[in-house]
Amino acid sequence: QVQLVESGGGLVQAGGSLRLSCAASGRTFSNYAMGWFRQAPGKEREIVAGISASGRSTYYADSVKGRFTISRDNAKNTVYLQMNSLKPEDTAIYYCAARSGSGWHTFADQYDYWGQGTQVTVSS
Question: Residue 121 has what pLDDT?
Fold first, then answer.
């Protein structure tokens, strides 16, 4: 089992920044690819960013490319999502997820473990 706990969400004005963290415990963190997903009210959960187990490979959804950065610190068992130039349409609950194996995936059902989520609200 892997336990994931997100933090860092909150209310921010458009154009502002937030940094989300996801702390993992349980199994060897460096054996898992990680993803950040988000779900807005009435919408399906969607991939925001993914990072390989080593951290060498990353993926970004087109909607966040150039504004968000995913990173991980395997020594601290933590994955981060730096979010800059936030827009009201970024408002959602943000979840981190762990996938056994080296590579990230864009489909939520390919992830084995999930955090409880953290709310991000961007005001206009």
Answer: 98
